[in-house]
Amino acid sequence: MNKEKHSIDKATQEMLMQMDEANIETAWDRFEQQKPQCGFGKLGICCRNCSMGPCRTDPFGEGPQTGICGATADTIAARNLLRMIAAGSAAHSDHGRDIVHTFKMAVESDSCDYMIKDELKMREVAARFGIKVENRQTKDIAGDLADAVSAEFGKQDGSLISASAYPPPSRQKIWQEFGVTPRSIDREIVEIMHRTHIGVGSDYKNLVKQGIRASLSDGWGGSLIATELSDILFGSPSPIRFSSNLGVLDAEKVNIIVHGHEPTLSDIIVAVSQEPGLVKLARDKGAKGINIAGMCCTANEILMRHGVPVAGNFLQQELAVITGVVDVMLVDVQCIMPALGSLSNCFHTKLITTSPKCKISEAEHIEFHEDKAVETARKIIKTAIENYSNRRGKGRIPKLLERGIAGFTAENIFYHLGGRFRASYRPLNDNIINGRIRGAAGVVGCNNPKQVHDCGHLTMIKELVKNNVLVVSTGCSAVAAAKAGLMRPDSAAKYCGKGLYEVCEAVGIPPVLHVGSCVDNSRILTILSNVVAEGGLGDDISDLPVAGAAPEWMSEKAVSIGMYFVASGVYTVIAEPLPILGAPNLTRYLTDEIEKDLGGKWAFETDPVKAARMMIEHIENKRDALGIKGTKERKLYDMEERRALAVD
Ligand code: SF4
Ligand code: MSK
Predict the structure, then answer these.
(1) Which of the listed residues 74, 76, 207 should we mutate to test ligand 1's pocket, taking the one with most ligand atoms within 8 A of CB?
(2) Is the pLDDT of residue 594 over 50?
């Protein structure tokens, strides 16, 4: 096996060799079995939205140019794209809804296992949602906030409060004039399903508008609510040390991997795993303790708040089981490969599903209910402890892990960039204006066996920081960066250009800032809004020298994320093209003309160095438009010059 062809992560390569020797198939093997993949599907020009079909159009212009109902390639591809956005937006927003339910329960019940951990943030968020906070009890404010955020999902009139409370006014005006201000979270998703039904709209631009509106209801709505309420309920993150990669598994301890996306169960699992009674039980069974590690975005949630080690990103989930030391793989929702079911049956690992939304036939199901959170967590941990003695041998854990710092948020960046007594985005804006930092890039998203695992993320990030672009990262991209040491502050000396290095060195931050899970892309939106509000870099997000990228994306959530970044004014480059290339007008619109409407646009580039250079070129063009093209050295005044300074 040419393992380098699959991954640049050494731990992954080591495990792939083991899987090959043991003749166990992985996502990479199944990807090979799928080749050649369907060309019509890739181009987005097959439709099965009614039973007259399935239909397809001929991209070479020789065969049919419409489906049976007359839908053109542009219509078909636009409808398919919208349905991807609906699914992605639904996944994020349903996650948000579950957090709202837990928050409501915490507010209403005195005997609940959850409580408000960040009261200050609760008051700030409540004020943003227009709730009176002065001279009121926490419980009363929280009750009003729970009602307000709950209503965002299903309200029938008006528009999302968060979409007018968080983005810059200029951005809100653009959305209003273009007619894409999100109205309510569920409504936009439902309307996508309506509009893409046979015989509703066929104008691709009008269809895309609804995709934009639904994506905005995700980024500035459902995802934002998930982030804000998670901080309130589980505590706002602050910079925290952590370790990452499969080497965080411990052969001598009971290992539980929490995998998926939501923090509600995993946060409790972390707390309960430290109960002396359970630790003693593990010791009685011959283990040295209980080791919790994360996978995918559940990992990012508990890493950001508790420093829980991360075992890996999306393409490493199967590899973790094959180490033979995972006693329980505990999953909630999203990004969980069905293959884990049959795979864990080949090992002693117990795969436990917990959500009624996500059952896997070969898995044990222990349903999680927030009102019995601690009780359920104890049961799951006991199951893992019992299973420890079923291990077959010592297992094989790659001795590879890396350390770093995570836990950056829109709020605490204030302190790191401004110093404890000068909490402000001013130093960040000043360093962008003076050119030490050329701009910022959000590098986010998944892994995809179409790309060499982690290679797209790391190659792009290294090219960006070398050119003095500060990187913020979420999801599996953040895990890739962490495993490669890019979240160590000392990595700035190795990878950054001079200006960015000086800033990282002075402030003590790594060149890649981990800002959380997939729903926490909303933190990036808030950071961009704060940078605009600080002043000096234009009036709108589209004026900023910033860009976004998802170099190894695979999930429908990534399509929604990309669309809300584009619709917020951000140039967004992805590797695998959106499945629209068979629709020439739609492709031209999304990769070019949409910029006139919304200030952002899509680009597709599989070469991560080329993609990074496209982002850097965009950043430099934005600097040019702002009149800050060059680099200004910091001016040090002597006493005479200081006296000469005019004081108003
Ligand atoms: Fe074919 Fe139109 Fe039906 Fe799609 S909606 S399957 S293009 S007839
Ligand atoms: S987990 S959506 S593979 S980033 Fe958020 Fe990773 Fe993508 Fe899932």
Answers:
(1) 76
(2) yes
Query: Is residue 144 situated within a structural domain?
Result: yes
The reply to whether the predicted model has a pTM over 0.85 is yes
- What are the tens digits of pLDDT across the range 248-265? 999 999 999 999 999 999
Q: Are residues 133 and 253 in the same domain?
A: no
- Residue 126's φ and ψ, nearest 5 degrees, are -60, -45
How much distance in Å is there from the Cα of 47 to the middle of ligand 1?
A: 6
Atom of ligand 1 nearest to the CA of 198: 5
Residues 140 and 286 in one domain: no
State the ligand closest to the CA atom of 312: 2
**How far apart, in Å, are the Cα atoms of 315 and each of 125, 312, 353, 453?**
36, 8, 19, 7
Nearest ligand, CA 475 = 2
Average confidence (pLDDT) over 320-339: 97
Per-residue pLDDT at 212 exceeds 70? yes
Look-up of token digits 């204030």: 414
Helix %, strand %, coil % of the chain (to 5): 50, 10, 35
Cβ proximity of 611 and 549 under 8 Å = yes
Residue 641 is assigned to a structural domain of this protein = no
Residues with a CB atom less than 6 Å from ligand 1: 47-50, 52-55, 67-69, 71, 76, 198
483 and 590, same domain (yes or no): yes
Are the C-beta atoms of 452 and 516 separated by less than 8 Å?
A: no
CATH number at residue 119: 1.20.1270.30
25 Cα–ligand 2 center, Å: 21
Give the domain extent around 29: 3-56
Is 67 within a domain? no
Same domain, 557 and 586: yes
Q: Is 445 in the pocket of ligand 2 (CB under 6 A)?
A: yes
pLDDT at residue number 646: 47
CB under 8 A, 24+ apart: contacts of 359-366: 360/331, 360/336, 363/331
pLDDT for 421 beyond 70: no
What's the CA-to-centroid distance between 39 and ligand 1, angstroms?
Answer: 18
Residues 506 and 494 sit within 8 Å (Cβ to Cβ):
no
Q: What is the count of structural domains for the chain?
A: 4
Same domain for 291 and 216: no
559 and 439 share one domain: yes
Which residue, by CA, sits nearest to atom 3 of ligand 1? 50
Mean pLDDT of 114-119: 96
Decide: 163 in ligand 2 pocket, CB within 6 A. Answer: no
Nearest CA to ligand 1 atom 2: 69
pLDDT at 419: 58
Same domain, 220 and 254: no
User: Please, what is the average pLDDT of the chain?
Assistant: 95
**Helices then strands (H, E): number in the chain?**
29, 16
96-111 pLDDT tens trace:
999 999 999 999 998 8
Asked whether residue 648 is assigned to any structural domain, the reply reads no
Domain end point (choices 211, 234, 257): 234
**Local confidence band at 640 (pLDDT 50, 70, 90 cut-offs):** low
Ligand 1 mean position to 590 CA, how many Å? 23
Same structural domain, 143 and 31: no
CATH assignment at residue 442? 3.40.50.2030
pLDDT at 424: 83
Stretch 495-509: mean pLDDT, rounded?
95
Q: Percentage of residues in the chain with pLDDT exceeding 90?
A: 92
Helix 223-234 to helix 521-534 angle (10° resolution) is: 90
